[in-house]
Amino acid sequence: MINIAVLASGRGTNLQAIINAVQEGKIDGTIKIVISDNEKAYALKRARDNRINTMVFPYKSYKNKENYEDQIINCLKNNYIDLVVLAGYMRLLGSKIINNYRYRIINIHPALLPSFPGLNAQKQALEYGVKISGCTVHFVDEGIDTGPIILQHAVEVKQTDNEETLSDRILKYEHQLLPRAIQLFAKKRITIEKNIAHIT
Ligand code: GRF
Q1: pLDDT tens digit string along 54-95?
Q2: What secondary structure letter does DSSP report for 158?
Q3: Domain residues for 70?
Q4: Is the C-beta atom of 79 inside 6 A of ligand 1?
Q5: Which residue has its alpha carbon closest to ligand 1 atom 10?
Q6: Which residue, 15, 115, 150, 158, shows the most beta carbons closer than 10 Å to its own?
Q7: Of the residues 14, 36, 116, which should be mutated to test ligand 1's pocket, given the most ligand atoms within 8 Å of the CB?
Q8: Residue 32 and residue 5 in contact, taking contact as beta carbons nearer than 8 Å
Q9: CATH number of the domain enclosing 111
Q10: 60: left (phi > 0), else alpha (psi -120 to 50), else beta?
């Protein structure tokens, strides 16, 4: 059983998918803590409704980035966290956290990386005119959405799509992909070789 921390800044539908998967026995792990930088995040309510501990670290209330990161690292260590899951966490993690948790932090991104990293991935995909997009779960490194890819799922982009319809279609698959990746991690089925993730 692994100890999981979920970091979320917003509505938390991916957090909900993880909560559901844990409750259904599809993940060999426990969500020990939900961390947010935004005290108003609906994700926090979802956590509390499921009696999961929460912590809020509002970035602006810390002296500097290092101080901010130290607080998060302390929280992760105090909870004996094995895996950190970024589920709509809108802040870039600094190198200190990444170094402490190398290949133990995963992120869900609403595009087929390495295409369309960063913000508004679905809008980027529509503006480029790709016919297939999707979602990616990857390990987090120092770059923006650049770490080793664990799982991807392709989603058709329809001619009639707008940002909302495409985002909704991709989101359904995010909710499947992220719990699956967590379970692969829990089962120690992900190995890294030359910075490439392999599923065994
Ligand atoms: C998702 O689209 C995720 O891919 C992106 O942020 C969004 C978070 O949605 N990183 P939610 O808060 O999980 O509903």
Answers
A1: 999 998 888 898 999 999 999 999 999 999 999 999 999 999
A2: P
A3: 2-199
A4: no
A5: 88
A6: 15
A7: 14
A8: yes
A9: 3.40.50.170
A10: alpha
